Each structure stands twice: as C-alpha cells, then as structure tokens.
Amino acid sequence: MRIISRKTELEALISDFRSQGKTIGFVPTMGALHQGHLSLVAQSKAGTDVTVCSIFVNPTQFNDPADLQRYPRTPDKDAAMLEQAGCDVLFMPAVEEVYPEKDTRTFDFGRLGQVLDGAARPGHFNGVGQVLSILFAMVQPDKAYFGLKDYQQVQIVKRLVQLLHLPVQIVPCDILREPDGLAMSSRNALLGAEERAVAAFIPAIMQEAKQIYNDQGLEASEQYVQQAVAAHPLMKLDYYKICDRDTLEEQTRKSDNAIALIAVFVGKIRLIDNLFL
Ligand code: AMP
Predict the structure, then answer these.
(1) Single pTM value for the model
(2) CB of 183 shorter than 6 A to ligand 1
(3) Beta strand pairing status for 258-266 and 235-244?
(4) How do strand 258-266 and strand 24-29 relate by DSSP bridges?
(5) Among 27, 86, 162, 179, which is most buried by a count of CB atoms within 10 Å?
C-alpha cells in the first residue's frame, strides 16, 4: 500500500493508473477505522481495479470545536488495518494540503441539507460538500463508497455529484453493527464503559419503534422513542424522525417508503443511527 500525504504525488499516481486504463474506487474517511470502514474498502476492491482510501479529519464539517478536538485519531493502527484489507493507496493529507486557502463556497442542497443533521449541526453538510468536492477532484474516482449509517450524508453526496456534474458513481453500503446491534462508529471509542452499555439501547429502541410503527402507526412510534430514551439518564434525544427515504421530508402518516432516523447524546457523545421501516 502506498501512503501519500502530498496532493501532487497523489495526482501523479492517479494519472498513472488512468493511463493503464484502471478504474478507481474511493473510500473517504476521517480515520479511527473499524470494520464498517473496512467493509467499504472490501466493496471498492470488488468493484474497481484500484482502491484509494483517504483519512482526513475535515475541520470545516465540525460545527462544534470540542467535537473536532476530541475526534479520535489512530493513524498507525488505521494504516495497518488498511494494508491488511488490501487497500492500494492511503491518502492522509494535512489540512493545508486540502485547504491551501479558506474555502468560502456554499452549496445549496435544498431540503436535504436543512433537515435532521442539517438543522442540528449548522454548516456540517456544507463542510462535507467542500471536502468531498476537493477530494473527488484529486482522486478522480469512478466509484465512491459511502456507508448508510450516515444516511443523510449519502443523499447529500448524491446531490453534490449532480450539482457539480461529477463523473463518479456513488455506491451506498450497508451498516455494520457490533454484536449487540450498536452501529459501528469511530465515536464509539469515546464512550465510557457505562455509556457504551447504554448505547446498545439505541438499536434496540429503533427495532421496537419499527414494530410499533407497523402495528400502531407513526405517532405511537415517536412517543415510544421519546419515552424509551428519556428512561435512560445517560441518554438525551437530539431527534427521532420518520422521513421519506428519498426526499427526507418528514412524514405525518405511515408510508411504505419511510426511514426512521435518530440522533442521541450518550453522555457528551452524539451518535446517529437509522432503520428502514
Ligand atoms: P467517517 O470516518 O465516520 O467519516 O466514515 C467514513 C465512511 O464510513 C462513511 O461513508 C460512513 O458512512 C462509513 N461508515 C461509518 N460507520 C459505518 C458502519 N457502521 N457501517 C458502514 N459504513 C460505515
């Protein structure tokens, strides 16, 4: 595996691959890798000739400086995991390499950018748009792989690609979970033992809420989640919403194209999850 930090070096390598007619798969990450990330690498390896993974903790997508500061960073372990997974290129640029000057661009993602995490984390998706437009320009991937754990992000990225007319196919990938059901996340490493145990209630609550949605309807499902989360002193509900899977429009009654999305603080750590209903 080639480990690269300079943009010029990456671009030379990519143009080599391109001249050999090789297809490029891209897995952008913020590091502190887990099996969920590696599942994207595996799908990229299966779908393209060369897999490029980036590790870059993008400052412009953090609306909370404390969140950026405590974001876990384990570069050596990450590189070893990627090597083991058969990744071809690891791109780990410094902030100045990605943003030689301040990025002042704003993207209009419409409703997709305004609801859910768009409302809860102002500027977050604009930062995602900034960094991905830059990384896509550097890597020039044929396909880019994104986890459905960040469901809204997948929708945003598809929109970004449309807005910028980029020749990249976005491949959504299933959520990987811990044995107790908790969606794998780099942020899970920040949970204390008690918080980690409590976090496992999130997927359990979501499953129960799905059952209630199907048996008793939307309002009953929402009420259940509010009560169930409030019953755990370490958890605080940021949002639980039932939306249309494509438009993310909030639903007022049962539909067959619905997804439930949740954001919960466990202690200081904010976790997200979702489930098709
Ligand atoms: P992150 O490093 O958190 O920015 O995530 C990088 C990519 O990995 C994103 O496309 C995430 O959606 C994806 N990802 C994170 N957690 C999981 C998971 N549990 N299962 C599948 N993909 C994931």
Answers:
(1) 0.96
(2) yes
(3) antiparallel
(4) unpaired
(5) 27
